[in-house]
Amino acid sequence: MTRPTVIAVVLLAACFHPHPGGQQELGGGDCVSCHQTDYEATAMPVHRDLPTVYTTTCGNCHRQSSWQPALEGQHSEAFVISKGAHASIACQDCHDLSSPAPAKLGADTNCLGCHPDSAPLTAQHVGVTLFAGTPYKYQFEIRNFCLECHPAGLGEQHPDRAFPRTQNHAVVCSQCHDRAAGPDTTNVTCVESRCHHTVRQTDDTDGHKGGDYRRSRGTGSDRDFCHECH
For residues 192-212, b (16+ Cβ closer than 10 Å) or e, as one string? Predict the structure, then answer.
């Protein structure tokens, strides 16, 4: 067997389904040349009306073996993929479609493949504490544990000097940060968190009776108005 023939066998073995005779194997980005009709007929969600969200590069959201499960289209802006270290990574290199968790907010992501437990990673986290002062620990059992402290995929740190995570605020990040509402600089919610359930619990308590409090409170729709005084 010649070398070119061996290569051809290996390439064909990578295909999941048999194709009729006479069809030529195509690269992963050429799906739409055969599946244009499938693309245009997709109704849940409709693809053809949103080509910038649901592109014809099928492999971004779909596996070769089946149409479902699939990723959910537009990527959240909360996790930066337009620039930086995650810009050139293929969607399914991070999102695991075999996971029962949804792709929304990165629930099905696997960070460990690119960020293994290594000496350089440990060195970068020396002195880093998690919620309640817990020291950093690599968590093999939670494949996207990195998102708890790095929801944007960046190396930012909590501004503890401006807002200390101590005493009643020594809680997990997601208890105060509503990641569905945008980046951590704007997504803090005091009112709807597990601690301050409603503004009515604060009304008329010590320090929350005067006109300044009422003006800041307003209707209570500003979920982090507490920061004006705290």
Answer: ebeebeebeebeeeeebeeee
Rounded Cα distance between 153 and 88, Å, is 13
The upper half-sphere exposure of residue 55, i.e. CA atoms within 13 Å in the direction of its Cβ, equals 10
Separation CA 184–CA 164 (nearest Å): 15
Q: What is the dihedral of CA 104, 101, 86, 74, to 10 degrees?
A: -30
pTM: 0.56
Q: How far apart are CA 214 and CA 203, in angstroms?
A: 9
> For the chain, how far is it from start to end, CA to CA, in angstroms?
75
- What token pair was written down for 197? 């359930």
Element (H, E) at 111: none
pLDDT digits (tens, 9 = 90+) for 77-115: 888 888 888 988 989 999 999 898 988 888 899 999 999
